[in-house]
Amino acid sequence: MVSEPGGRRPLVSAVEAVSAGIAGAALAWLFVAALRWVPAAVAGVAAVAAGLNGAISGAKGIYQWRRPRGWVCWGLDSTWGLISVAGGVVLHLVNAFYPSSYLDGMSRRTNRHVYEAGFTFRSRFAITFGNVVSAAGGDIGLRGDSPQVMRRRRLIDVHEEAHVFQNRSFGPLYVLGYGAWLLLAGAAGLVVGLVLDRSNWRSVVETFAYYDNPFEYWAYRKDRYWPPHGAHPRFVWKPGDRRQPVEDP
Question: Mind listing the pLDDT tens digit for each residue in 168-215?
Fold first, then answer.
């Protein structure tokens, strides 16, 4: 029987995918159904999203089943963190059109998926939905051992991993909080930029909406990359750490 990359046999991957998919769907259904104020149709949608996440993640072998942490991550991905995880399922589908971008070595048994290329909202910036990191390599890539590549790999292991943790910890509060800050702080930044720095108002808006977002601040500080190079120096949160001598994520 032909083995997959990493030494896994197709039958083993299939069994894990089916098991994690069915169990994830059942867990999501029970979780949402317990919220009696939520329509039954929502429980069905949740079950589909959790089932797909379990099937894909099982096939790729990302969860650390031999450790309690892996079971906790799977359970949270199937329940409390499911909204963003559903976005990660969509990312899987979109990134299927980016050949050879999935990095098995940075994904297997790490409780996350990493795509070296893939969809992103902005060039050079990785994005994370649920347990899926997309466009992780930016314009540098994640292969090799150059200082730039090693810095980029640290970005994934620290900064983007922080977002995966935030989603599992705060669940819908993370999604709603991030989105609300993006909109409200962005609007405030637009007013401040047009009044105080009209020539550079876009940077002011980006700093208010993105860099000063508490979830991003947390991730950048954890990665010891604060203040980021692209943030407006007048409006970025203080204090700062020593900046790494490479480009921003």
Answer: 999 999 999 999 999 999 999 999 999 999 999 999 999 999 999 999
Domain count along the chain: 2
The Cα–Cα gap between 187 and 177 comes to: 15
**Contacts (Cβ under 8 Å, ≥6 apart) of 34:** none
pLDDT at 6 over 90: no
Domain range for 233 is 171-249
Residues 22-48 as b or e (16 or more Cβ within 10 Å = b): ebbbebbbebbeeeeeeeeeebeebbe
Contacts of 146 (CB under 8 A, 6+ apart): none
For residues 181 and 135, state if they share a domain. no
Q: Domain for residue 191, yes or no? A: yes
**Phi then psi for 132, rounded to 5 degrees?**
-115, 125
Is the bond preceding residue 239 a cis peptide, omega within 30 degrees? yes
For residue 95, what are its two tokens?
Answer: 């990134």
Residues 135 and 14 in one domain: yes
* Three-state SS at 156: helix
Contacts of 70 (CB under 8 A, 6+ apart): 63, 64, 109, 111
Q: In this structure, are 212 and 93 located in the same domain?
A: no
